[in-house]
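Standup notes
- DV: blocked on the single-chain target, sequence here:
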Amino acid sequence: MFSQNPFVELLNLIPAEAMQGFVILMFLLVFGGTIYDMIEKQNATYFFRNWRKSKLSKVREISFSEMLVIIFKTVTVDVFSAAEFCSFNRRLAHLLTFYGFIGYVITTVIMVFGYLPEKSATPEIIPTLWYLSALLISIGCYWFWFFIRVDVAAEGNPRLRLVQADIFVLSLAISSTVAIVWGLTQSSNPLLSNIFLLLYIVSNLVLFGSIPWSKFAHMFYKPGAALQKRVADADGSRRNLPEPADKPAILGTAKRIPRNY
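- DV (later): unblocked, structure below
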């Protein structure tokens, strides 16, 4: 069951060209939505303006080898290990979603474009990784949704309260969950499977079509911001902030989980 390509079973209902076209459409929505978000919110303008300011106030030049090290640290530490999150639970939930999403996209592309129409049998490992990746996304998203959200954990708002910022995580959670159920019910209950297929299509359209209004595009901005921060620390500009004290003052009480309600 977990080793079967779910898109092969779908050939009886939808042509391979239509499925491939839908995947291409999702990539176009990501590209177009991100560009629109950059223009509307002027993220790129803000980024390059800060970059120019830091170049004017830098203390030293960064060599090519140093820049390579900074880029390597940015990719490995800030991107692939989510070092920006101090909380272990927050970091783990993010990494589950992050790696699950990467694996989910890659295996979807392989199964749809590499084995449709079915010229050869799909290797069992690929569908298995597809289901596993979808499961990781679901765990990470639901963990964040019910237990980690700041407005719920720290401010006491209802867990089912919806705001615009929740579009991304909620649509991603629903899409991955529906994908698993759709794949598992294909052979046992075709009618139920078709219902979940419709939900799968709609949830993906919401996920990738709502990029200008969700936080999806943030995954493309954060690496650039992390790189800019590391470069500013290395060249001495420090984003116009003062140098850290040798021993920062310890103010307030011991660290505690915020429960402001």
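- Follow-up: The domain at 6-61+92-216 is CATH 1.20.950 (Fumarate Reductase Cytochrome B subunit).
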